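Lab notebook page, bench 4
Experiment: in silico fold of construct C2
Operator: M.H.
Input chain length: 182 residues
Purpose: comparison with the prior construct
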Amino acid sequence: MAVKKILLLGNPALRSKCIPVKNSSSKSTRAIIQNLRDTLDDFRLRHSFGRGIAAPQIGSAVRIIFIRLNELGTLINPKITKRSKKKFTLWDDCFSFPGILVGVRRHEWVEVSYRDETGAMKKLKATNGLSELLQHEIDHINGILAVDRAISTKHIILRSEMRPVAKCDPCLDFNRLIFYFA
């Protein structure tokens, strides 16, 4: 289909709660999935990182995310059904605010129900990097951005300033950021 422009922080479309997909095999749903795949692949080709993207980031207000991790692919109408009580802290980033890192707390594991591209109902339990990624992308389809989950205003920084802050703030694990970009 097409590589789409990624919407940036400040665009009101990123703050909209997305509507559920009713027909996973419709022409419009298939086009959005392909656009997500093409846009993520293009970003990865140009920047050498990127694991997931959500439909609102390309201007589509539907509940679809696309993940390139653990061969996961498309998740339609994903919903977190269970989550760990224990959380971990990491530096999060986003295609929609390049150059900015946000210190956030995420659940160590989540269980997610969703439909795949064929419309089949699926469930998965995600830990570590996949857990964090799914929480981030599902937040997007709920109109929530990582900056909304910042531990405090001190925990929103420029990527260029990350190393000095990471050394000064022991609650944020620099190694989690390295895993995020791997």
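Observations: The two ends are 27 Å apart (CA to CA). The chain has one domain: 12-181.
Next step: discuss at group meeting.
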